[in-house]
Amino acid sequence: MTLNKENCLTRAVEAAPLAVFRIFFGLMMLLGLLRFVAYGWVDKLYIQPKFFFSYYGFEWVKPLGSFTYFIFLLCAISSIMVVLGYRYRLASILFFLSFTYIELMDKTTYLNHYYFTSLLAFLMIFLPANAYYSIDALRNSENAFQKIPVWTVNSIKLLLGIVYVYAGLSKLNSDWLIEAMPLKIWLPSKFDIPLLGNMMHLDWTPYFFSWVGALYDLTIPFFLLNKRTRPYAFAAVVIFHLLTRVLFPIGMFPYIMIVSTLIFFDASFHHKLLKRLDKWFKVGIQRFDNSRVLVDKKTRRFSFKTAILALFFLIQLCLPFRYLAYPDELFWTEEGYRFSWRVMLIEKSGYAQFKVVDTESGKWFYVDNSDFLTTFQEKQMAFQPDFILEYAHFLKQNFEKDGHKKVAVYVDSYVSLNGRLSTPYIDSKIDLTQEKESFQHKNWILPFNDEITGL
To answer: How does pLDDT run across 106-118, given as a tens digit for each residue?
Structure first.
């Protein structure tokens, strides 16, 4: 049997899976936002700090003081609109922009699942997730479709597959597989976990989790695609992510991944879910079963959308490999580390003492980092070179405003990676204020005195 464009892209399939995904995705986002506000993290992370670390090229994205709560409110309202399928296109754009703005406000809070959420939110702008079981479809029958092109569902599966497979590929290294690092450091502290606590101190446990974790990530998308193995694969998804949630404080990510993988199930499964939901909302799911088929018209608008999505997935496939353009060990320099689905692969701790020199008078002094950074910011800054560089430039600006002339900033820094002894990290003879942030290799990072083999 040969596959053609009709089979792979435009074949009509039931819209129910996309509707279920829209509802659960919106609910997970709403719960996550409410959780963030309820725990006081908006104030702690985005209002109280005196300084914020920026992403290169997005230095203009900053918290807005007390108005930062408005961004979270806008994000929450748009997530509710997504759930309901009300003015969906506008809602999905607003959610993507507001959530991504939140993500970009401070690099200190970077997490893979924030990045994953932004990618999903961007993708959903282009998907007809309001074609079925939505307020938009109820208000205007011209927007109601029982069937949609298969690519709209498969695009979510593809993104999930990329996340899993790349996360698995990143685990194929000697620290993870041979040394069982950093699980060998983390797991013994989990001795108080019910049922599993007693096995956390056993020598073989971190190796078992390391190998099973790599195997799971590399294979789970393919088992989910196969109808025969799908129920067992989904059970593995639930067990795996609930276990990671118990072992590690990673927020909503496990639940987001669990509900996202429902997209792999057949339309009949999603119809059953919607019928159960309909018992609560009493909308009348039969009102959406109109046999209408949404057809992608070959217009200029369609071609533009196709080009945007093709570029989007090309970036997702290529971006994780950008680390190959840099010398030295990725885990040490972290050049090309973010946005590449390298999940929980390293345990790093650092120490950074900054020396400010007035080059005109020759006077110098050491900086108390707690005067400018929160404890969390200082911890993250101490082992990430782009943080160190940005902070050095901030110190220069701050102290020159205080009257010091032609300030130079040096740093004595030490970093420990995956249980290794702490070693010098940044060249202490380099005036960091003379270095500029860019995509080029930071040659003022000292070499890694060890070797980690693998991808």
So the answer is: 999 999 989 999 9
